[in-house]
Amino acid sequence: MVFFEVCGPSEVIVVSGCGGAKPRYITGGRAFVWPLVQQSDRISLTTMTLMIESRQVYTQLGVAINVTGIAQVKVHGQNKEMLEAACQQFLGKSDTEIESIAKETLEGHQRAIMGNMTVEEIYQDRTKFSQHVFEVASSDLINMGISVVSYTITDVSDDEGYLASLGRSRTSQVVRDARIGEAEATKDADIKKSLAEEVTMRSKYFNDIEIAKAAREFELKRAAYDIDINTAQARANLAYSLQEATTKQRIKEEQMQILVVERSQQIALQEQEIMRREKELEAQIRRPAEAEKYRLEKLAVANGIEAILRAEAIAESIKLKGDAEAFAIEAKAKAEAEQMAKKADAWKEYKEAAMVDMVLDVLPKVVAEVAGPLSQTKRVVMVSSGNGEIGATKITKEVLDIVNQLPSVVHSMTGIDINQAIKLAQVNR
Fold it and tell me: Which of 11, 172, 254, 384 is deepest in the core (most CB within 10 A)?
């Protein structure tokens, strides 16, 4: 009985037996197998995913960590030697058994490499660790006919918080470096921005200066052109004005000539009119005026003589009247002088008696003057403390007190003691 074996591209049929012939390896095809003479086996070429976990492995510095890696492995079907080695190692085994062997191999190499590295090296440079594990494990698995397609670390942890502390420290460093980098970047950006702004401002100022220069040159040229235009215009205007003034002057001269001729004619006419008026005045006013003047002169002479005679008469009258008044005044003065002389002689004889007589004649007048304000008073209000006289008696007494003070006043002014003179006059009687 003849059998045909068929396999897919992900497996290999191994046909062995039939004397001392070497096994045949058919990948993705069919093979003829003699029953009872030959034997056929199958081995899978599919990729196997292995999770490699290493728990509590002490690193180079004695820190225990946990590392989890993912490896992709498969039986290498393209290389005949590796395929033969795989058949020798795994032919007749299930996929689970092959995965277990590969996993234990990879885990052993992973643990060995972890022990030769520090936590920082593993944590900070995972690529280096993965590459090292990949290289070391591949060299052993190749001998088994298995190739390592890929190997990566998925997790690194520890049970003591070492990595967390390292992460916080690194985080602080990273944050610090980030802040420093950000500050430096900001500083560099600000510097570059300032430099750019400086360049921009320089360019702007340079452009402004060039624009200002161009504007100034334009204004200067325009001013020069304006000067030329204004000069030409002024010359034209001046020429026109000169021509106009010359024409006006000629017209004015002609007008003046006309006015001169007219004025000359008017003057001639006025002279004739003056001569006519003079003759008319001569006939109508001057001759009658001269006659009237002569008459008035004669009349003024007569009136003057009359006024002189009248003034002389008045003056003579005033003189006679003044002489009479002067004689009367002189006679009166002489009489008064004689009276005063007689009175003086009497005073010399009477001396103090006469002066006392005069004082006594004056005393009633003094008393009247003292009492005069009281006669003009409509109402008198007197305030008394209750001691002494009150009413009209009080007023009369005050007037008499004033009069009693008169002898003292006369004595102080004239040296005459009225009281003493009266006493002497009583004694003489």
Answer: 11
Long-range Cβ pairs for the range 262-270 (8 Å, 24+): none
Q: Give the model confidence (pLDDT) of 345-387 as tens digits.
A: 665 555 556 666 666 666 677 767 766 666 666 666 666 655 6
H helix or E strand, kind and range, residue 172: helix 162-281
103 exposure class (CB count in 10 Å sphere: 0-12, 13-18, 19+): middle
Q: Burial of 59 by CB count in 10 Å (0-12 exposed, 13-18 middle, 19+ buried)?
A: buried
Answer yes or no: are the C-beta atoms of 82 and 65 closer than 8 Å: no
d(CA 334, CA 326) in angstroms, rounded, equals 12
Tell me how crowded residue 381 is: count the other CB atoms within 10 A of its CB: 4
| pLDDT tens readout for residues 228-255 | 888 888 887 778 878 888 888 888 888 8
CA distance 222 to 278: 77
> What totals of helices (H) and strands (E) does the chain contain, helices first?
10, 8
**Cα 89 from Cα 192, distance rounded (Å):** 68
Structure tokens at 152: 């990566």
pLDDT of amino acid 8: 67
For the CA atoms of 216, 221, 223, 228, the dihedral, rounded to the nearest 10 degrees, stands at 170
Give the tokens for residue 397. Answer: 């007494």
**Alpha-carbon dihedral of residues 47, 48, 49, 50, nearest 10 degrees?**
-150
